[in-house]
Amino acid sequence: MGGSLASALRASWLPRITNGWFFRAESFFSVARYLDEAAMDARGTPPDFLSHSHGEGFLRFFEERCQRQGIFIFDEPESALSPARQIEFLKLLHRMNGTGHCQVIMATHSPVLMAYPDATLLRLTKYGLEPVSLKDTDHFKVMREFCDDPKGFIEAAIEE
């Protein structure tokens, strides 16, 4: 499906944007390893992303790269982040948004990340994309049911 989708989309931005990232959390270690081997910071030492936990390295990576004008596409960034680190990621998104020069497109299952203020949420259905509110997403509903009764939720889930 990715190949078909790629041929159907054409990204453009005015004024012309030359910076940006497509990022899958599953690819982080490969990218971090490459950067640790190839890049040096201003002191001549490697960035050392791999000495941190997955979530810490992920956040550090984006802190350093997402402060400039660009388009950033994230594919399920929550898979690298604990709930507390998802809040840190929201703060990073807010700083990026504050520059006025960044656009973020994100595929996520995280109600925490979906709750970003003024985010446009779209649900992919068999009929295409449709607008959806946070509280109407399946992921929010599941999280709400869990938070309302964790014990009962888990008991019901494992009995099925």
TrEMBL record:
Positions of the ATPase AAA-type core domain: 69-115
Recorded topology in the membrane: Peripheral membrane protein
SUPFAM superfamilies (UniProt xref): P-loop containing nucleoside triphosphate hydrolases (SSF52540)
GO molecular function: ATP binding; ATP hydrolysis activity
UniProt GO BP: monoatomic ion transport
Membrane-crossing residue ranges in chain numbering: none
Xref: Gene3D superfamilies: P-loop containing nucleotide triphosphate hydrolases
Gene Ontology, cellular component aspect: plasma membrane
InterPro entries for the chain: ATPase_AAA_core, P-loop_NTPase, Siderophore_ABC-ATPase
Cell compartment(s), UniProt: Cell membrane
Keywords in alphabetical order: Cell membrane, Ion transport, Membrane, Transport
Name of the protein in its database record: ATPase AAA-type core domain-containing protein
Species in which this protein is naturally found: Chiloscyllium punctatum
